[in-house]
Amino acid sequence: MKIVVDERSATFADFVQSIPAQFYRGGTVIYASRNEIRVFDVDGVAINVKRFKVPGLLNRIIYTFFRLSKAQRSFHHALQLEKLGIKTPRPIACIHTKRDGLLHESFYISIQEDFGRNMYEFGKGPLKGRETIIRCLAQYTAKLHESGIYHKDFSPGNILFQQTDNEVKFLLVDINRMQFRQVSIQKGCANFARLWGGDEMFRLLAREYAVARHADIDDCTRWVFDYRKRFWKKYVRKYEMPFDL
Question: Are 126 and 192 in a shared domain?
Answer without folding.
Answer: yes
